[in-house]
Amino acid sequence: MLIKAAAKIPSSEITPKAAFMNRRALLAGTAGLIAGAALPAYGRALDYTPATGDLPSPLTDKDDITSYNNFYEFGLNKSDPKKYAGALTTEPWSVKVDGLVNKPGDYALEDLLKPSALEERVYRFRCVEAWAMVVPWIGIPLADVIARADPQGSAKYVAFETLVRPSEMRGQRGTFQLLEWPYREGLRMDEAMHPLTILATGLYGEVLPNQNGAPLRLVVPWKYGFKSIKSIVRITLTEEQPQTSWNMQAPREYGFYSNVNPEVDHPRWSQAKERMVGAGLFAKKRDTEMFNGYADEVGGLYSGMDLRANF
Ligand SMILES: Nc1nc2c(c(=O)[nH]1)N[C@H]1C(S)=C(S)[C@@H](COP(=O)(O)O)O[C@H]1N2
Ligand SMILES: [Mo]
User: How far does residue 78's CA lie from ligand 2's centre (Å)?
Assistant: First the structure.
């Protein structure tokens, strides 16, 4: 059974280095072949085969990844993003890179992505609501974009903002708004520069569906899902820790760091276990892993920090 197999595979193997390097080569090669195709270059369709070697596929079904979503700009229900995010115009799209950088700019998305090779990253994805998936993302390292902007020495954090466009985002209309727009997120500079942190433009070898944050969303696999901000229009380097949407909404419940941690419960529920989306109502829950299974890679970023205080 697919999900059972997934549960047994350590996260370090879910992103097999060799496999994603092969994919990288494949992606680079494919770019030339279909350069004239109708799809935008940053989300080319691929002849998709999961990068999981001979293992039974641990990937969450594409149908689940694209129909069970959180994207409050389109409504509060899991089914709303798929229903309503089609209204969002994602072309043209521009991203402002500003703040404490020597090379600020307003980039057309294609120009932001062009210098980097697209890579596939198969990552665990863990929502703070205690459900999880395994997603084959396509994207580029966030570090590439930041390095090209030439950060100033005083830059300590990176702030992100989602688009505000009530005419296309029905969750931004109306009188009741749970969150303040724009949706905001932030990372410490070392977290942003970490090689696991990507800006995703696709999944399952295809252009990112709107409900998953098209055309550009952050993916930080060792943090709760709400850190992985969707439909990004601005990336700002700052000296002060930026404000983040869920922390503004409920500061006691959602901290700035929000690293996946089985030992630090949400005030209203346990984080010790997680439910794999698509595994069925009666499937056994799996144990939540420290840093979502990426402790070897990212544990060092937090050495000496009290993770209970810095939740
Ligand atoms: N702009 C924006 N980004 C967002 C959200 C949102 O509501 N708005 N939801 C977050 C939450 S809570 C989660 S779990 C993930 C969900 O990503 P997915 O729908 O691709 O699984 O997106 C995150 N990014
Ligand atoms: Mo979430």
Answer: 10
